Amino acid sequence: MKPADLRLFRAYGRPALGETGDVIAALSTPDVDGDCYRGVLHLLRAGASTVDFTRGPLDSAPVLSPNGSVVVFLRAAAGAPAQPFAMPRHGGEPFQLVDHPLGVSSVTFSPDGRFIAYLAAVPEEGRYGVAATVGAAEPQRPTADCGAPSRHAHGPAPEAEPARRINRMSYRTDGKGFVLDRPEQIFVLELVDQSGVAAVDSTPRRITDEAGPIGRPAFTPDGAEIVYTRPVAIDSQQAEIVAVPVAGEPAAVRVIAAPHGDATAPTVHDGWVYYVGATFDGNDFAGRTPGLWAVPLAGGDPHRLTDVATVHVDADAGDPVVVDGLVLVAVDDRGTVAVRAVPVDGRDVPLHEMAVVLGGPRVVKGFAVNGPRIAAVIADAASCGDIVMGDLTDLKRAAAAGEPSPEVRLSDISAPLREAGLAGVVEITATATDGYPVHGWLVLPPDGAFTGPHPVLLSVHGGPHSAYTRSVFDEAQMYATNGYAVVLPNPRGSAGYGEGHGRAIVGRLGTVDVDDVLALLDAALARDDLDAARVGVMGGSYGGFMTSWLASHAPGRFVAGISERAVNAWDSFAGSSDIGYFFADAYVGSDPDRQRALSPLQHADRIDIPLLIVHSEQDWRCPLEQAQRLFVALKLRGHETEMLLFPGEGHELSRSGRPKHRQQRFEAILDWWARYLPVG
């Protein structure tokens, strides 16, 4: 597999499921030649060939009206933000609904299908290309040329904009830029009037006036209110759940609940709001386990349906769905993600008592439910994520009986990857020096492709509250298919192993997490087909921190390292990162001496291996100065180091950066390892 094979790593987004069993999902493909991403909507049915429902260029996030007659999705033209389009479910030309200066996200239908609600950033006049005239920042009805949304390039160039007056710490976000002068708001757009006549030429109405970030809108069953989440105060990590009347004024916000912690992904059903959240005070969020909660729609005290110690609910894979007295959610567990069920009247239900709906040694990346059916995007060791569909009753029965899942597979987008030669994934375990059990994965070069014993790469994930899984991972596949055995540990601090595991490194970075990754590495090196004398270390974000730390605290273990988008100095990170003002305090504390002691920069004089430092120029999560400070410290002492900087990219370069930059990154990494850890 070569870096140019990045185009083979295609992925489906969260599916939309119709009542007849039709599935509509967006397929995203990296286009290295065009240096962009292509996106089309697919229509998938059991027993039928996949149909291209749209032609792009970049279509995503489809949602179906309640009666299944209309599909609304997001379309982004070249260089323009995504705007909402609609088209009849049974075919026809898509038409643009509205044109917002900075685009739209999180579209949802009202229960009667009459309205859609969505999020759109509202820029200050005179910024982001919006002209400084009254009303210029408001959404417009699209022009006749629906395929070419306005770029709103009538305001001043960014360098000519007026100075920003900043009065809060949450003033910018990685991947978005400044957010204090472009807050997201909820808009409502009428698609069909009360007489049933199409009203798509209506003007969207803004119903919120929020200064900070807000969550996805959710209609109440009667369609009278929209429920969403917001911070309890500017710069706070704690959230509250609120409702605003669809026909009311933006100021008419009703507080439903103020949980002690965060809250996201609300779903309203039968007088209750179900949401995902974790409990903590102040900034003490580190390693907390998000669970499923419920609170009366009328307002009251929330209660937790799932056990705090064992259940980690993954809201990224789907919002809670209520079906026949059960709430379905995605749950992380030891490198897998399954759809599980908990009774609506449950209280602190532990993991082992949650019925499995879609499980197994794989990862549910997104799911949707309609009536008796569920559709899901599922990734495993042979797929980046394919669409499956099944009957809920049959799936639960088979899972309870330990039988094979009776789902129907609707796609196979990873067949070209398998033809290119996928590396195999092996589950491994170990015991740390203090007796703690460690779990992770080993990705091995394809059988017969290389002569062993193989050189080894220890790759540490970011987060730290995330986890490696056994599903196809482009990073590990790229390295393994080029001759490296790749060790993927989930040390203490990772997600999906219980709250105790996640919080074990709070105030203890560089201690038990180091013990865990080295223990799993040693377990892998016990194999005859791995070369214990030729080991490299790499990782990004928290994994970059661990790489820099291990380079100075594990002498003789590694021959070289690659530290990407790393935290190298907690003292400056606390002030320069978009999350630094709360993240540094949560994981290492606010004491300056403690911050320096836990910073790889403080120990740069002990780094004894060649180190490649990779960073993005527009990274605001782990800002560029984190790379520069370590690079200069190493250069001043004459150490062997290089720095690779990517212009115009942020923290998510390796996952969603420009395809050409992602390819160049892979080429640079393989070149570095070819120099210091050549494959036989």
Describe this structure in words.
With 680 residues, the protein is α+β, with helices and mostly antiparallel strands. Among the domains are: 11-161 and 171-199, no CATH class; 421-676, 3-Layer(aba) Sandwich (Rossmann fold), CATH 3.40.50. The protein has twelve helices and 40 strands. Strands 33-34-36-35-37-38-39-40 form an eight-stranded mixed β-sheet, sandwiched between helices. Strands 1, 2, 3, 4 and 5 form a five-stranded antiparallel β-sheet that branches. Strands 24, 25, 26, 27 and 28 form a five-stranded antiparallel β-sheet that branches. Strand 37 (530-540), helix 6 (542-553) and strand 38 (560-564) form a beta-alpha-beta unit.
Largest sheet: 8 strands, mixed
> What radius of gyration results from the CA coordinates?
25 Å
User: What is the SS-derived class?
Assistant: alpha+beta
The assigned CATH architecture of the domain at 421-676 is 3-Layer(aba) Sandwich
CATH level-4 homologous superfamily of the domain at 421-676? Alpha/Beta hydrolase fold, catalytic domain
Strand fraction:
25-35%
Assign a percent range to the helix content. Answer: 10-25%
Low-pLDDT segments: 143-153
Strand order of the largest sheet: 33-34-36-35-37-38-39-40
CATH topology of the domain at 421-676: Rossmann fold
